[in-house]
Each structure stands twice: as C-alpha cells, then as structure tokens.
Design goal:
Blueprint (H helix, E strand, L loop, with lengths): L1 H7 L7 H36 L18 H7 L2 H33 L4 H12 L6 H11 L6 H9 L18 H26 L3 H9 L4 H12 L1 H16 L3 H7 L10 H10 L6 H25 L5
Length: about 325
C-alpha cells in the first residue's frame, strides 16, 4: 500500500536551488552557440536595419545622420527597385517548380531501384554537380551558353542547322531566355542534392502502404498522389521555403554572368543593392540597406503565405 501511495503521489516540481544548479550546468554548453548566433547572425541584421534609417555613405568621413524613412520612401518610388523585384519574382516563378518537382520525380524513380549497388551508383552520380564550387559552375555554363564558342549554339547552328549566326539564341542576353537559362543551370546544379531530401522522406514511408494499394488495384500514378505525395509534404515545404529564399535573393549568378548592366534582365534588386553599396559614387549604404530590407520583407511575406499553404490539414 505504501508503494502504491508513493506511485500515486504527484512528484514535486524542482526547487529554485535545483533549477539554478541545472541552469549553471547547462548554459556553458549553449554559450558558444548563442555567442555565434548573436555575434554572427543577429547583430549584423540589427546593424543593417539601423543603417537603413541613416544617410550612411561608406567613403565619406562624415558621421551618419538619422533620416527615418527617407531611404524607404525613395526606394519605393525608385523604378529600378520595382523592376528589380519583378525580375527576381519572374526568375523565382520559372525556377521554383522545376527545382521542387524534378528531384521529387527522380527520387521516386531511384527509390524503385532494388539493386543496392546500382542505387548507390545513381546517388553518387547525382551528387557530383553539388560538389562543384559555384564560380566554376557559372564559368562552365557561361561557356555552354556562349554565342561565339558555346557548344549549345554550335550544335544548333553548325550541326542541326536550326539557326544561323544571325538569329541564334542569346541565352544570357535575351529577356525571353535568360531566366530559363539560369533556371536550367540551377536545376542541374542542385538536382542531386535535393533528390537526397526526397529519398530521405521516401525511406520513412512504410512499404506496406504500397503493397496494400497494389492489392486494391491502384496504379503507380494513383499511389504517387494518394500515398507518396501527401507524406512528402513536409519535405516539400522545407525545399519550397529554402529555394524560394535563395532564388529571390540570388546575386552571385547575376553578377558573374550579367554584370552591372542595368538594361539586362539579370540586374535585379540584389544587384542594385550591391551596386549602391559598393560600386556607385561614395557608396550610399544607407539606401542600399533600405533596398535590401524591402526585398527581405517581400520574401518573408511570401514565406508566411507558403507556410499557410502547406500547413498540416490532419
């Protein structure tokens, strides 16, 4: 009876002394991560936010003055900001579906391979592009897209005779082709990396579900939409959010392949921000910070909508 009463008696919450002792033992392990977060992540964000409300010019010796929302007012009325945001949105709309659904389909196909060594070989081959450094990828694809020496146009003009040197595609110079050209480069580069995400999600789906569906006469297409796709929704949300952010804020590819020519489609809001901060005049970094925050707030708004769209409906 005493043992049963002891089991039934609710346990007392730890006292103040025990809680303090536990915190003293725990916080030293968290301190490096917190220091890294506040010093490497949070402080630069707050610093740029402060700069966006000033007239800070990096190359002048004058101290920054608080100008409140003047930078934001000028940025909202700046046609280069609006056009840059629109160009980034167009590229994101072209890039995101392929980067999300192509790896999904490929992961389903690789997951069907039963021979372990062949499946491992497929995974290894898919991961090769992800191991190549970014600048090398840009130089490689810039050569592929070159109108003068690129093998793509050589094949279209000299081998297949579909175009001439006068009307051959301008992959990185034409407004109609540049977004698709950059998207195909990004698809190839990230295909294997994103396929691994889906393969990890597929490994957590019980195989009995597929066997039961086959017994009920379900086709492969039905099993994909009724069994596979709903259980890959969390993976899909992660990839959509991550890749939306990287696509909308893309800058390295634009600068290396398009430069700072404002007439080119690659001159987006990120390039304009960099141009103001480190290229033009006395480096008006207050205005550049405001442009960056406008783009960031636009991204956060869309991300919140994506979280609502992919919310759990169970």
């Amino acid at each position: 009876m005493a043992a049963r009463a002891a089991v039934a008696r609710p346990s007392r919450p730890p006292g103040v002394t025990a809680t303090a002792a536990r915190a003293v033992r725990t916080w030293p392990y968290l301190a490096p991560a917190l220091l890294f977060f506040f010093g490497w992540q949070l402080w630069p964000i707050l610093r740029v936010l402060w700069i966006s409300f000033t007239d800070y010019h990096f190359l002048t010796n004058e101290p920054a003055h608080w100008v409140w929302f003047r930078n934001y007012t000028e940025a909202f009325s700046d046609p280069l900001v609006r056009e840059g945001l629109m160009r980034a949105a167009i590229f994101t709309a072209v890039f995101l579906p392929g980067m999300v659904f192509l790896p999904m389909v490929l992961a389903v196909l690789v997951d069907r391979v039963r021979h372990q060594r062949v499946a491992s070989l497929y995974r290894l081959i898919l991961l090769i592009p992800a191991m190549i450094p970014g600048p090398l990828i840009f130089v490689l694809w810039g050569w592929l897209y070159s109108a003068a020496i690129g093998p793509i146009n050589y094949l279209l003009v000299n081998v297949l005779h579909l175009y001439t040197i006068y009307n051959q595609p301008q992959w990185l110079g034409s407004s109609a082709l540049v977004y698709l050209s950059l998207a195909m480069m990004e698809w190839w580069w990230g295909l294997g990396f994103h396929t691994m995400f889906y393969l990890a999600g597929l490994s957590g789906i019980p195989k009995e579900l597929y066997e039961s569906a086959r017994v009920d006469g379900a086709s492969e297409w039905t099993m994909f939409w009724r069994v596979t796709f709903p259980r890959l929704r969390p993976i899909l949300l992660v990839l959509v959010v991550l890749r939306f952010g990287t696509a909308f804020a893309l800058i390295d590819e634009y600068i290396i392949l398009g430069g700072f020519n404002r007439a080119r489609p690659t001159y987006t809001w990120t390039v304009y921000m960099w141009d103001n901060a480190f290229q033009i005049g006395d480096w008006n970094q207050g205005y550049a910070a405001a442009v960056g925050w406008i783009g960031t707030l636009a991204m956060l708004t869309v991300v919140l909508g994506l979280f609502y769209l992919f919310r759990t409906r169970d």
